User: What shape does this take?
Amino acid sequence: MKKILIPTDFTVKSLILVRETIEQATEEKIQIVLVHGIQPPSSITELLFFSKSKLINSLQTEEFINACKLIKSKYQSRISSMYVDIIMGNNRSYFHNYLTGNQIDEIYFPLNYKMAVKHPLSFDIIHLLKKCPIKSTALDCLQNPVNINAETEQISDLFFTKLQTVNLHEA
Assistant: This one.
């Protein structure tokens, strides 16, 4: 079973990558890890009371949660598991350790999509994904008829937007 990492900004638009990943995956069952980048808190007090699960819950919108449920339901025969995680480092060494520790086999990411900032400490992880040592597949967001960067949160966008695949490198 392959474990695939996909970046998310907790918008329905970012889940289009999940749909495309599922449709392109050759394995019968896959595990999907949706990842968002957050800088770690800088004060000791914030660190003492930090909770990754509370942070994730605060970032997820009702539309995002419903879209995830819809994807899980539609592709239940293909998805073994799908969950959201936070990475808390913006350097290559930390990210490489995250990939190794979580046994990530492949990465899918958008080429021309600007991740929305959902938290004051959020950062865009796309630059880390582009320089990753494992198999990476980029999806070109400019090739679709619907503007993926448009400010809508419609679940219908999940199924009416097509992305073009660009293979960058394989490990």
